[in-house]
């Protein structure tokens, strides 16, 4: 049973996390209780365990919870994001050209469809040449302005 002077929550600056008083023994027994806990009022817990303001993340200022600016992405994170984008765009090329490639293989492709397929393949070549290690300073190639995606074979603009 809780006494009047016993805090409900503790905060660890090293883990930037809250620990409910009723669970301290569980954390201690599991060997995961940090040794830098400071008691905090319930209203502090309520404020800093909720959704952060835009552009902020829970952090620490002078050993106490605080909203701090989201740190910029590292070079490695930017490269990873660029690689993921590149792979998504390459996958899109395969989706957009699937019917066109089948028509080409069967000898049923029309001239305008062949031109569109070539435009997508040129785009694929440009994508494959993108050097993601230069992220975030990447100039991404522009997709072809038309898509082939209905069974009647009509070409129509993509809404970007």
Please list the strands of the largest sheet in the order they lie side by side: 2-1-3
Class by helix and strand content?
alpha+beta
Order of secondary-structure elements: EEHEHEEHHEE
Strand content: 15-25%
Mean pLDDT: 90
- Helix count, per DSSP? 4
Low-confidence stretches: 150-154, 156-160
Number of strands: 7
For the termini, the CA-CA separation is 60 Å
Rounded Rg: 27 Å
Helix content: 25-40%
Query: Describe the biggest sheet?
Result: 3 strands, antiparallel
Q: Quick one: overall form?
A: elongated
Can you walk through the features of this model?
By secondary structure, the chain is an alpha+beta fold. The chain is built from four helices and seven strands, in the order E-E-H-E-H-E-E-H-H-E-E. It has helices at residues 24-30, 42-48, 75-105, 111-128; strands spanning 9-12, 17-20, 38-40, 56-61, 64-69, 146-148, 155-157. The strands form three sheets. The chain has a three-stranded antiparallel sheet. The protein has a two-stranded antiparallel ribbon with strand order 4-5. A hairpin with a 6-residue loop joins strand 6 and strand 7 (155-157). Helix 3 (75-105) runs antiparallel to helix 4. The longest helix has 31 residues, at 75-105. It is elongated and about 85 Å long.
